[in-house]
Write a structure and sequence with these properties.
Elements (H helix, E strand, L loop, with lengths): L1 H18 L5 H21 L4 H23 L7 H26 L4
Helix pairs in contact: 2-3, 3-4
Length: about 110
């Protein structure tokens, strides 16, 4: 019985340490800033076809949104079930972005 209690106590302490980890917010800021600079430079200085430009910009925006959600909204430190709920909403986002891209790319009737 005491082994079970000790194991539970150890799991609780591990969970507490994991929950209270402080991410390096300045490093995350610099990553987000760098991705933004890449987006701006890519759209201003290169002239790729619209489809490629929009795909790259949407991909970079998704990476930035994921970083913000994981670290600044603290989803990285939540239970897995909350992460699954968050990930499932990304499906709706992909559908909405795909429709927006299709409106720009596909010819008008």
């Amino acid at each position: 019985m005491s082994d079970e209690f000790a194991h539970r106590e150890e799991l609780a302490q591990d969970e507490e340490r994991r929950v209270h980890e402080q991410p390096n917010y300045m490093a995350i800021f610099w990553w987000l800033f760098s991705l933004t600079v890449i987006e701006v430079c890519y759209s201003v200085f290169t002239h790729p076809p619209k489809v490629i430009l929009m795909t790259v910009l949407v991909g970079l925006a998704m990476i930035k949104a994921t970083m913000v959600a994981l670290f600044f909204m603290h989803l990285r430190f939540e239970r897995k079930s909350l992460g699954i709920i968050f990930a499932s909403t990304l499906i709706l986002g992909v559908i909405l972005v795909s429709v927006g891209i299709a409106e720009q790319v596909l010819p008008r009737p």
